[in-house]
């Protein structure tokens, strides 16, 4: 068993620890940290079982399964927080996930890959398509702010109705993008699939029943742990003296995206930058085009209205992340200095969110 897998499996101990910490009513900060750490191995097991199942059911259904469960962690945490009425935290975590995937995950991958190989390459055509899709997401996110800025006395229901319509359109585009990717020879480039197509056929036989059981069990466990995390959120924020904006944009995405960051670095150090870029940018696309629209519609059903009107500074940060990622990825080549550039940008934005009132 790989060292990485052993470490992740050993982190499952945080699942019972977080449950015990909550039942004993320990310091909310302890509950928040232990439940956040418990999310990491559960997310890793969900990702692994999804990939194992995908190898059995074939590329088409497998691609659909990966696209659906690719950001299951962020989706579950957000739905639990949305049910608790923490709409602003949900919005912040969505923008934070997009920013972290584009700047932190991709930056780490390019840096570590560049330290081992002087220059790495990936498909510029795919990068341009992904970049254009991210630009579409930014346009949609900026539109409610533009409507508000250019209108006086606008009722909130108007933005809600716009968000419902825009969410449906984004889901249609995401479905078409998924269909398009399944019909190409390299679907992983568009879906952000963490599976490695360069490997030979799996040397082990997949136990489909076991993997389905693992997927369902870990998903249920993730719902339970996310509920503990969200319950401790307000008091933990007060204890740390942080704002809900910083917690949502910076801290929560670190728990949910940790596995993807490791995956990106692993691919990059094996000189498989195509896959590293696919995971980082593909995950951001899934958040923007699938998770966010689904949450808007789920909020409508739950009676917790959530629209696509985000904090202006969050929008500016997302636009910056998309702009600098597109400028770096368009030529299809990368080096370690570009990785540092992305990481510095993420640190600057993180610092700004820390000081933002």
Secondary structure blueprint with pairings:
Elements: H1 3-10, H2 14-23, H3 28-57, H4 59-69, H5 72-83, H6 87-116, E1 120-121, H7 124-149, H8 156-182, H9 188-191, H10 208-240, H11 244-269, H12 273-302, H13 312-329, E2 333-334, H14 336-355
Antiparallel strand pairs: 1-2
Helix pairs in contact: 2-3, 3-4, 3-10, 3-11, 5-6, 5-10, 5-12, 6-11, 6-12, 6-13, 6-14, 7-8, 7-12, 7-13, 8-12, 11-12, 13-14
Write a compact overview of the structure shown.
The chain is mainly α and 357 residues long.
Please characterize this protein's 3D structure.
By secondary structure, the chain is an all-alpha fold. The protein has one domain: Up-down Bundle (A middle domain of Talin 1). It has helices at residues 3-10, 14-23, 28-57, 59-69, 72-83, 87-116, 124-149, 156-182, 188-191, 208-240, 244-269, 273-302, 312-329, 336-355, and strands at residues 120-121, 333-334. It has a two-stranded antiparallel sheet with strand order 1-2. Helix 2 packs antiparallel against helix 3 and helix 7 (124-149) packs parallel to helix 12. The model is unreliable at 186-190 and 193-202 (pLDDT under 50).
């Amino acid at each position: 068993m790989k060292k990485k897998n052993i470490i992740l499996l050993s982190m499952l101990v945080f699942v019972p620890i977080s449950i015990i910490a909550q039942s004993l009513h320990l310091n909310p900060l302890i509950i928040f940290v232990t439940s956040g750490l418990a999310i990491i191995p559960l997310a890793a097991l969900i990702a692994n079982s999804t990939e194992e199942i995908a190898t059995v059911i074939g590329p088409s259904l497998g691609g659909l399964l990966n696209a659906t469960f690719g950001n299951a962690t962020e989706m579950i945490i957000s739905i639990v927080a949305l049910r608790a009425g923490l709409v602003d935290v949900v919005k912040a975590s969505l923008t934070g996930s997009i920013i972290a995937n584009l700047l932190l995950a991709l930056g780490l991958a390019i840096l570590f890959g560049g330290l081992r190989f002087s220059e790495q390459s990936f498909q510029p055509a795919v990068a341009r398509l992904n970049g254009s899709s991210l630009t579409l997401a930014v346009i949609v996110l900026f539109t409610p702010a533009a409507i508000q800025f250019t209108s006086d006395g606008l009722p909130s229901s108007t933005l809600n109705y716009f968000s419902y319509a825009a969410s449906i359109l984004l889901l249609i585009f995401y479905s078409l993008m998924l269909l398009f990717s399944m019909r190409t020879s390299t679907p992983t480039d568009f879906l952000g699939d963490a599976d490695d197509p360069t490997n030979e056929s799996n040397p082990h036989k997949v136990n489909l029943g076991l993997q389905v059981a693992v997927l369902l069990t870990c998903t249920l466990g993730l719902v339970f742990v996310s509920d503990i995390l969200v319950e401790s959120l307000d008091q933990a924020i007060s204890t740390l003296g942080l704002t809900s904006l910083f917690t949502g944009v910076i801290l929560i995405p670190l728990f949910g995206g940790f596995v993807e960051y490791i995956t990106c670095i692993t691919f990059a150090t094996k000189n498989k930058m195509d896959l590293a870029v696919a995971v980082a940018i593909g995950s951001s696309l899934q958040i923007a085009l699938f998770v966010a629209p689904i949450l808007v519609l789920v909020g409508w059903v739950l009676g917790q209205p959530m629209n696509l009107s985000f904090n202006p500074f969050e929008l500016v940060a997302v636009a910056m992340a998309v702009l600098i990622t597109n400028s770096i990825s368009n030529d299809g080549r990368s080096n370690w200095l570009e990785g540092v550039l992305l990481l510095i940008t993420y640190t600057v934005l993180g610092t700004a969110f820390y000081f933002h009132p």
